[in-house]
Each structure stands twice: as structure tokens, then as C-alpha cells.
Structure to design on (430 residues):
């Protein structure tokens, strides 16, 4: 940073994913402080210092920054802390990449889809509840539909409904998870096909496409929403996306006034068209930067840390490397487990030693309990394994080895690991 004194970074939220922020900051010789209102937050255990200040207490956060001589404040991975962190930075005059208005649009599924339509970008079709309840219009409704809160994440409050009775139940469930009490009812797209995951980096007002991945999902039951189980890079549709959609997306975010930061978009590709449905103006929980950075040296997390401390995302040299055209194969393998208590974990050392494994993010450990209430949400994720391979054959071999070696045993002696991804999906990748 060009300063003999260590910079100090305050990390707003100590969830397991935030351990990555602490690790990367320490690699850069930055002093780390983690705060939230939980005693045993995972990131607190690895930070240089931890505090018991609630991230929603803006005045207390401001005082913490002043008292600890903090140079920058950062949060990511979940929407809930973005606005609080923005407020703290605004009061202090610190660097934060988004405005209140930008967060309001990008964190809200309905507002984001409206923005897309305004910029000639297709979105997943949706229905109004009033239309569905009007008996004379039911012939226009194509079931199944998927019901979501507009302002929730982590697959919480989402239901797939096959008829009007199920829809009313799903609608009321979604309301429980929506702070704004606003619900979106969408056409259920073809879940047998891979979705599309997009990453963008914004540097000084210029919008750069950083990756296009094929996203695979798993359903425990046809009535339950899909959970992401794997993402393959680069997507077989990368050229199609660049030629047909990317320019409109860049213009959309320029029109929204984005100046810096990172974002991801989730979409479907059906009948020759991309359909957007949600985004995050932050790092995604899949930690795609772990794969991207090992392929072309572009690390989205490091950019956000640098921006929080300096107001600059990266050097021109790093910007020139941003490209979705990868010369290697990347993959994020997401491991789901059944509810229960973990008695024994076997095989992690073997997996860590595999050549293609570049990172493992482990959420649960021996003795941890996974409650029934988190079933079919991202809280059921045991961990993520990030892979980079020279070719498809090596990638498939590594995934098969992981599935063979990893054993997660419950108190009843039975396996808790769900076999949610099949390498046959990758057989046709070039």
C-alpha cells in the first residue's frame, strides 16, 4: 500500500465465507478486525481482532471505526449487510462502491427484472397473483410456477407450485421471508438444462465481463426449489452470450451509474435466448474468484479489499487481464449434506492434496449440527471445492476422486453426503 504502517480493515460480518476476506487481507499484510453480534462467528476465529458490535448499529459501527483507526470497511457474500456498510462508509467518508439507489435495485428481484426489460434484456416470465386468482384467467397460467420473496437470498422462502392451492401455500411461505412483503411468481424454467452464471467487474465506470459459467442444480424433491450443485467454466455459451447480450448488459449497468465493484447475474438459456432472474452487487457465495484468479490472475475479492482501503479497484495491468475466455477448465463443486449431527469426516486431507484442487471452503466440522429447518437452503452446504484443470478429462477424474474419498458420517453411522452432482453432465464439454 506504499505505507510502512499496516492498514486496518474492518470486516462487517463473521460468517464462514468471510474467512476468505481475512485470509486474503492477511496475505496483503493488512490488520483484520471482524465484527458482528455473535460470539462464535467463524471469521472471528481467524482475524487479528474481533468485536461484539452489531453490524446494524450504525452509530456503534462508526465509533468502532474511529476508535480502532480503521482504514476501510468491507462486507460481502450476503445482501443484508450491504446497506448498513454503505451507511457507515458514507458517514465516515470512506470508500464504498455502491449508492443506496443502486443497492435498492440490484438487491430486489422485481426491480432488477424491470431494469433488464428497460434495457432490452429478456427476463424469466412472471405472473401476478391477482391474475392467477381470477378464475376466468387461469387458462393463461402455465404450471408449475416458482414463488419467491423479492428480497431474500440463500433459497429461503422459495416454493415450486403445481396448482392454485399449492400456490397460495407457497405465497404465504414466501411472505414470511420477505421484509418488504413483496412476492414474485415466475414461470418454472427447464431445470433439466444448466443455468448460466455471469460475473462482471466494474473499474472506474467501465463494465467488464469476467466469466460465464454453466450452472447445474439439484432437486431433492420436485416440489422444492433447486440448489446449485456445480458451476463449470467456461460456459459452452460464452461466445453466444458475448455476441448477443453482453453489450446490452454493459449499457444497462452504465445507465445505472455503476462506477466500481463486482457483481454476478443468474440466468437461464432456453430456445436460443438468455433469461435473467436475479443478481447480486457483491461477491457470490460460490466464490467464483477462487477459480477465476487461478486461471487469469483476476481476483475479485482482492479488488474489493483494495477498493475499501484505497478507492481504486486494481491496476491497469490487472484490468487488461479481465476476460471470460479461459484457457483452462474451472469448476465449483458444491457439497450438500442431510440434516443431522456430523460424527466423522474422512478424506479431506486426500482431497486437499489433489493437483486440480485450488481451494476448499468448509462450512461444517465434526460435532456440528444441521437442523431440519435449513433443509433445501444454502445452509445445507457442507462446503465448496474449487477446481482448475488443464482439460475436461482431468476435471472429471478429480471430481470422481473427491466423491470416492470424502465421507461425512452422522451419529447413526449413515452417510450425510448427498450425491447431488454427476460427472456425466460434463462428458460433452469440449
Amino acid at each position: 500500500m506504499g505505507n510502512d504502517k499496516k492498514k486496518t480493515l474492518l470486516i462487517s460480518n463473521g460468517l464462514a465465507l468471510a474467512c476468505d476476506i481475512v485470509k486474503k487481507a492477511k496475505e496483503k499484510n493488512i490488520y483484520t478486525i471482524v465484527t458482528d453480534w455473535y460470539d462464535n462467528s467463524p471469521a472471528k476465529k481467524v482475524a487479528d481482532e474481533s468485536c461484539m458490535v452489531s453490524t446494524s448499529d450504525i452509530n456503534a459501527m462508526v465509533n468502532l471505526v474511529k476508535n480502532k483507526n480503521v482504514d476501510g470497511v468491507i462486507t460481502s457474500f450476503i445482501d443484508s449487510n450491504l446497506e448498513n456498510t454503505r451507511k457507515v462508509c458514507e458517514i465516515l467518508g470512506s470508500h464504498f462502491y455502491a449508492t443506496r439507489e443502486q443497492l435498492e435495485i440490484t438487491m430486489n428481484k422485481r426491480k432488477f427484472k424491470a431494469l433488464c426489460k428497460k434495457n432490452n434484456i429478456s427476463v424469466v416470465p412472471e405472473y401476478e397473483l391477482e391474475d392467477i386468482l381470477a378464475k376466468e384467467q387461469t387458462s393463461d397460467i402455465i404450471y408449475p410456477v416458482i414463488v419467491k420473496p423479492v428480497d431474500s437470498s440463500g433459497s429461503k422462502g422459495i416454493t415450486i407450485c403445481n396448482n392454485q392451492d399449492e400456490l397460495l401455500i407457497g405465497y404465504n411461505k414466501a411472505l414470511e421471508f420477505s421484509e418488504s412483503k413483496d412476492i414474485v411468481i415466475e414461470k418454472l424454467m427447464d431445470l433439466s438444462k444448466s443455468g448460466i452464471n455471469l460475473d462482471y467487474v466494474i473499474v472506474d465506470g467501465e463494465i467488464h465481463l469476467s466469466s460465464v459459467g454453466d450452472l447445474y442444480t439439484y432437486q431433492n424433491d420436485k416440489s422444492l426449489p433447486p440448489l446449485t450443485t456445480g458451476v463449470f467454466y467456461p460456459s459452452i455459451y460464452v461466445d453466444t452470450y458475448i455476441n448477443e447480450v453482453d453489450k446490452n448488459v454493459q449499457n444497462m449497468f452504465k445507465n445505472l451509474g455503476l462506477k466500481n465493484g463486482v457483481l454476478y447475474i443468474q440466468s437461464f438459456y432456453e430456445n436460443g435466448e438468455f433469461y435473467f432472474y436475479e443478481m447480486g452487487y457483491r461477491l457470490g457465495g460460490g466464490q467464483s474468484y477462487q477459480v477465476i484468479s487461478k486461471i487469469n490472475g483476476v481476483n475479485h475479492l482482492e479488488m474489493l479489499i483494495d477498493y475499501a482501503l484505497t478507492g481504486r479497484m486494481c491496476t491497469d495491468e490487472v484490468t487488461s487481464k479481465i476476460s471470460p475466455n479461459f484457457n483452462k477448465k474451472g469448476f465449483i463443486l458444491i457439497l450438500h449434506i442431510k440434516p443431522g449431527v456430523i460424527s466423522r469426516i474422512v478424506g479431506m486431507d486426500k482431497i486437499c492434496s489433489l493437483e486440480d484442487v485450488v481451494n476448499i471452503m468448509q462450512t461444517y466440522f465434526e460435532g456440528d449440527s444441521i437442523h431440519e429447518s435449513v433443509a433445501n437452503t444454502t445452509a445445507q452446504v457442507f462446503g465448496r471445492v474449487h477446481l482448475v484443470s488443464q482439460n475436461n478429462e482431468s476435471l472429471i477424474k478429480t471430481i470422481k476422486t473427491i466423491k470416492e474419498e470424502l465421507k461425512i458420517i452422522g451419529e447413526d453411522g449413515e452417510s450425510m453426503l448427498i450425491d447431488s452432482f454427476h460427472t456425466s453432465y460434463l462428458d460433452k464439454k469440449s
The mean pLDDT is 93. The two ends are 42 Å apart (CA to CA). The chain is about 30% helix and 25% strand.
